[in-house]
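Hi all, posting the design record for the shared folder.

TITLE: backbone redesign
STEP: 1 of 1
STRUCTURE INPUT:
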């Protein structure tokens, strides 16, 4: 029985279309922000509605999640910085923060732009220079269970980069920017838009300045889901959550297929021992899928210190 939708034969190079996703854990409020920890060999994810961030061990599965941080200020997206610390986007505080390795010490990275509070930082990535890129839609201000209802101070929904001590505005043109990822050479930034279902591509120079921007592709289809999570694999395929599951796109913007998931997908990441497992957050659950690909390697600049903090 075919578990996923095949649009192009190359979809089989990404995964076995007869291999369904497997449920790892369920019973949460609204799962988001999965990241794989290369030392602990565990998955970290957020339950925005539950106001908790969890670890889950894929070898143990349900009901193994253990608490990383609570309350989490309704954290959404997460990333690892180049020293192995967890970076999180907090809906309730409109902040991007960095945790120490235990999740107990929290350092503020950004919560305002030009004297006005950020909206509700949503998804986040870290590049090889240690710069932190994040999206800032309004969901944590307009959805009661996912944040705190409050007026917006900025008059736009932005894409930002924390470059050292500087907070740079990358774009203010998208309706509700959400997922983001960088190309492997870090010269293209891809950002999807949940309210104008599409992916946009920003060409960057070596200093992270935008050279040009284009609408890369529209995301459409049948079923639940909007553009939310966004990742690139080692073959430069783009994965984007959307109607019906996770849309797998070639570098030439051809839809190869859709990974079907029983619940509407919010986000996903590559991980596992060899990096080929796709971990998926979808509404109240966490799923996994064995693929024939891998995600980009996690870049850690101080690996010795990174390792010792987790022994």
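Okay, here is what came back for every position:
SEQUENCE:
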């Amino acid at each position: 029985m075919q578990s996923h939708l095949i649009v192009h034969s190359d979809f089989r190079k990404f995964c076995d279309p007869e291999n369904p996703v497997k449920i790892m854990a369920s019973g949460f409020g609204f799962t988001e922000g999965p990241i794989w920890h290369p030392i602990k060999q565990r998955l970290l994810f957020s339950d925005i509605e539950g106001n908790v961030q969890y670890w889950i061990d894929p070898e143990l599965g349900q009901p193994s999640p253990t608490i990383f941080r609570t309350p989490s200020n309704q954290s959404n997206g997460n990333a690892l910085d180049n020293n192995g610390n967890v970076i999180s986007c907090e809906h309730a505080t409109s902040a991007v923060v960095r945790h120490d390795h235990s999740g107990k010490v929290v350092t503020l990275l950004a919560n305002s732009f030009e004297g006005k509070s950020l909206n509700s930082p949503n998804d986040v990535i870290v590049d090889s220079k240690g710069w932190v890129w994040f999206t800032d839609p309004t969901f944590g201000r307009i959805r009661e269970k996912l944040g705190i209802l409050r007026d917006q101070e900025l008059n736009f929904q932005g894409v930002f980069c924390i470059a050292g001590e500087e907070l740079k505005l990358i774009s203010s043109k998208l309706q509700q920017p959400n997922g983001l990822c960088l190309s492997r050479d870090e010269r293209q930034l891809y950002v999807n838009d949940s309210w104008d279902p599409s992916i946009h591509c920003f060409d960057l120079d070596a200093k992270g300045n935008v050279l040009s921007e284009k609408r890369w592709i529209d995301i459409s289809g049948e079923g639940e889901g909007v553009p939310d999570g966004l990742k690139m694999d080692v073959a430069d395929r783009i994965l984007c959550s959307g109607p019906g599951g996770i849309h797998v796109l070639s570098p030439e913007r051809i839809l190869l297929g859709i990974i079907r998931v029983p619940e509407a997908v919010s986000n996903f990441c590559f991980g596992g021992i060899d990096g080929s497992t796709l971990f998926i957050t979808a509404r109240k659950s966490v799923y996994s899928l064995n693929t024939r690909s891998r995600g980009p390697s996690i870049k850690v600049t101080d690996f010795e210190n990174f390792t010792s903090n987790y022994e």
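COMMENT: Residues 5-308 form a domain with the Neuraminidase fold (CATH 2.120.10.30).
Let me know if anyone wants the other runs.
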